[in-house]
Amino acid sequence: MFDHVTPEMLGNIYVGLLGLAVLMYAVLDGYDLGVGVLLPPRNEGFRDDMIASIGPYWDANETWLVLAIGLLLIAFPQAHSEVLQALYIPATLMLLGLILRGVSFDFRAKVVQVKKRKWDLAFKYGSLLTTLAQGYMLGIYVTGLRTDLWSQSFALLSAFGVTAAYMFIGACWLILKTENELQAKAIYWAKRGLLILSLGIVGVSIANLTLHDEVRELWLSAPWGVVLMAIPIACFALLLLCGVVLKRLPEAQGKGEWLPFVIALLVFLLCFAAFGISYYPFVIPGKLTVMEALSSADSLRFLLVGVVIVVPCILAYTVMVYRIFSGKTEKLSYY
Amino acid sequence: MDAFLLSRLQFALNISFHILFPTITMAMGWFLFYFKLRSNITGHPVWMRIYRFWVRVFALSFALGVVSGVTMSFQFGTNWPGFMEKVGNVAGPLLGYEVLTAFFLEATFLGIMLFGIRRVPNWVHTLSTLIVALGTTASAFWILSLNSWMQTPQGHEVIDGVVYAKDWAAIIFNPSFPYRFTHMMLASGLTASFLIAGLSAYRMLKGDDKLAPKLSFKTATYAAAILIPLQIFAGDMHGLNTLEHQPQKIAAMEGLWDTTEGAPLLLFAIPDEQSRENHFEIPIPYAASLILTHQLDGEIKGLNEFEGEHPPVAPVFYAFRVMVGMGMLMLIVSWLGSSYLLRNKVVPTWLNRVFAGMAFSGWIATLSGWYVTEIGRQPYLVSGVLKTHDAVTNIAPSNVAFSFTLYAVIYSVLLIAYLGTLMLMCRRAVEIEEISTEEREMAKASKMSPATV
Question: Where are the domains positioned within chain B?
Answer without folding.
Answer: 1-176+389-453
